[in-house]
Amino acid sequence: AKAQIGVTGLAVMGRNLARNLARNGFRVAVHNRTPERTRSLVAEHGDEGTFVATESMADFVAALERPRAVIVMVKAGGPTDAVIDELATLLEPGDIVVDCGNAHFADTQRREAALRRHGLHFVGTGVSGGEEGALHGPSIMPGGSEESYQKLGPIFEKIAAQVDGVPCCRHIGPDGAGHFVKMVHNGIEYADMQLIAEAYDLLRAGLGAEPAELAEIFREWNRGELESFLIEITGDVLAHTDASTGRPFVDLVRDQAEQKGTGRWTVQSALDLGIPITGIAEATFARSLSGHADQREAARRAFPGGGAKLKVDDRDTFVEDVRRALLASKIVAYAQGFDHISAGSREYDWNIDLGGTATIWRGGCIIRARFLDRIREAYDEQPDLSTLLVAPYFAEAVSAGVPSWRRVVAEAARAGVPAPAFSSSLAYFDALRAERLPAALIQGLRDNFGAHTYHRVDRPGTFHTLWAGDRSEVEA
Ligand code: NDP
């Protein structure tokens, strides 16, 4: 029998995805530019299921039942385009090309349009969970046509992570929707990690405790509302001791965070769409800042006295304050991320189900968390929710956390401990709920120097004041 699906590109991700497919009973055709990888996959894991090993792209395509479904898992960028172009010459109308790599959604839109002209379906698919997820059950975010999902859905839903019997996979929407949602997922991941890092830093500056003691606090938090994969592994990393020195591992790691670009893409897209994802942006910039070693060195010399301690009167109250501030800031980050998805969906006509998206992030992916059930419930109850912040569960958590949030941010500022994501999330919250914003003054300034006009609170119309003249107001 022919293979039900094929995977080309058998480095760590493609290899694990192919094994996951085979282990779930699908007949998988496998191919890699360098055939040695294909041979070693079958030699090492051939007993896990049915692999159809192929050496040429033509044999690979010929090994597939129709409509053919081919997963491309090669290096992102040029190599992905090269493989797609080659496949396009070999496939026939109705066949499906799935890009499970980390593509920018705009590239996916371009590739989808190009393949559609050949009668082919192109399905940009976000896959989260790293190599472990690919093997044991990732969170899968497929874009592309409804028609392609009829073939791919049953396969992907079977190999995805399962939570409460629900697969962490659903059709996100047309063309680039899947890669867009994966991009925002990664942006939220940046914010989540930055918030956790700030919480750790504040706890350390406040308690003067060793990382291993702080690990216990995170383990405790992981039994409550904050329960999530990232909080869980924070406990593991903080508890880890370096074997060669016996010192806390975290103290031996150079404090310069790296990035592969999805945070940057998220912020760039949000700027284009006009969505204030301040938490994700702060997190992305915080990584950049950490990498500017020369500036940091110069500033340390010019302004000595960093490494201050926080004033803590009562240990338990302080730990609880940081926990509540972390939860409130995290709610802001997710509210902003879902705003971003909602705006992308409107801009590109994707009709993305926001609650459904929360459902498929509950397992498999890096931001998997208990919290995501609450997000789904919020959108189930009110599909046109203006912001997650006001959904009952989140509104309550934020309200309950506000005094803690203010104490932590104020104390961090007083002591000089940087908490950019905590403080900007609090500012976002305060700005959203403000009776009046100084945006009114900005409009006045814009009208003054550039005749950009303004609206009034007391009557309709568009107005301009003759600033250089007699300062009378004219209707624009
Ligand atoms: P790599 O990104 O390291 O890519 C290596 C694979 O690409 C090999 O199979 C290689 O073939 C193939 N390749 C490279 N150039 C070409 C070319 N010009 N023509 C044909 N094949 C080529 O592999 P990974 O498994 O790490 O990642 C695959 C994709 O998954 C990437 O897009 C990456 O961004 C994404 N990814 C996603 C993760 C996630 O959690 N979702 C995690 C990690 C990666 P050869 O063996 O012949 O060199």
From TrEMBL:
Coiled coil: none annotated. Pfam families: 6PGD, NAD_binding_2. Substrate binds at residues 102, 128-130, 185-186, 190, 260, 287, 446, 452. Pathway: Carbohydrate degradation; pentose phosphate pathway; D-ribulose 5-phosphate from D-glucose 6-phosphate (oxidative stage): step 3/3. This is 6-phosphogluconate dehydrogenase, decarboxylating. Homodimer. It catalyses: 6-phospho-D-gluconate + NADP(+) = D-ribulose 5-phosphate + CO2 + NADPH. Residues 178-468 form the 6-phosphogluconate dehydrogenase C-terminal domain. GO terms for molecular function: NADP binding; phosphogluconate dehydrogenase (decarboxylating) activity. The active site is at 182 (proton acceptor), 189 (proton donor).
